[in-house]
Each structure stands twice: as C-alpha cells, then as structure tokens.
Amino acid sequence: DGGGAWEPYQRGHRLPEALAAHIQQAVSIATEDSTAVVVFSGGQTRTDAAARSEAQSYLDLAIANDIPGAKALLGDTTPPSGSADDAPATTPKGRRIFVDDFARDSYENVIFSIARFAEVTGGRTPQRITVVGFAYKEKRFLELHRHAIRFPPDRFSYVGIDEPSLRPDEHATATNRPLSDAKTMARVKQDLYMCRLGLATRRKRNPNRRAVPYYLTAPAELRALLLHCGPELFQGQLPWDPRATEPQP
C-alpha cells in the first residue's frame, strides 16, 4: 500500500489518490495550453526510495498509468535515424514535461521549478506560474512563497486538490484527521526562504548529499534570488520585474 513511503503525519490518509489527481491536473493544464511546461518537483529525499526522486516517481506514474496527454508532453522520443548508441542524449523535440530532482521543501519546489524551466528553455523564465498541490497548502504558496520571490500575484495561481473524503465505512481518527498547515506556515513566516530554521530539514532530506546545479545554470538575476537567505525580502532585480520603458526615438 506504499505506507513505507509516507511521513508519520501522512499515514492514514488517502494520499496516493490525491497525488494522482495532482499529476493528472498538471498534465491537463499543459495539454490545454500549448505554451505551458510541466515541471514535477521533488528531490531524492528518502533513503528508502534509493536514488529515485519524488519528481521522477510522479512522471513515471503519469506514464505508467497512461494519464491522458502525458506521453504527448514527452515530445518526439524517436532517436534520429543513423544515430549511434553512444550518441549524446538530447531533449526530445517538443518535450514539455520535465522533472526537478533537487527540491527539499515547498519553497524550493517553487524556485527550483523556475530554475529548471530556465534550463530547458534556454534561460527564459515563466510568464505565468500555476502550482498544483494540496488545497490546505494554498495560503503558504500564494501568501508566502509567491511573496518571497516577488512574483506578480495576477500571474501566480494555485490549484488545490486534497485527498478524497472519507468513505461511508470510515471514521475520523487521530491518523486521518484533516491535515493542517498551521505549524509550517508559522515557521515559513519566520524563515521566508527556509534556509535558517529550515536548514536541518534540507540536510535531512538530502541523504545522498546531492549538489544543487541551479546555482551554476540559472540566469544571473535568478541566481541571486536562489542564493538569498533572508530574513529580509529579496530586493534585487528579478526576471519578472517590470522593465523600464524604452525611450522613444
């Protein structure tokens, strides 16, 4: 039943069904919008999952369960004719679904997804961001994480999908009561970039001691935000800031 893959506070909940709904929703959004790119985010956070990242497991699930539209987002995976077996790997033409294998917390889910987007689009950053996740986490993303990166609120949205309701034959218990985000919200308010109070958690969730590549690959303006630890709000120039109007000739 996958119980070993969950944190203690998650057990007793119908999270696999909710996660499948998240994956399906993300794929659906990109299927309906030909300019959208899906980035599943989540690192190799658990030793019992070996070297498989959370993000890769989401993509694998989308393909294995034949979620409508998922395979099409992989692009043309047919190897070029005449290519050697040891030819360098290239991104399939038309691919619009990727993974970020490094995020260790929800702030990194946001900022690393942007950095991964930049990697696969030649340094561009998204014009709009839609986060798909649990409904009870919506305020954390809209009020805190969006604020931390100073992304325009009218271009940052959240689709919240919680676990299915209890079945008629189920009863609320200490392990399946509705999940709350109150404690995490309080911590994030004190540590907006989650790198002081959240440092121990990040270390724990990186058991394979992987180095994050985005500090090297991200565009300069985004790299400065990636390196910012607070506690004050980042004040540097960002790719999505309004640009000065070009002088008229």
Automatic annotation (TrEMBL):
One of its GO terms (cellular component) is cytoplasm. InterPro entries: C57A10.07/YOR238W, Rossmann-like_a/b/a_fold. This is DUF218 domain-containing protein. It comes from the Eukaryota. Coiled coil: none annotated. It comes from Neobodo designis.
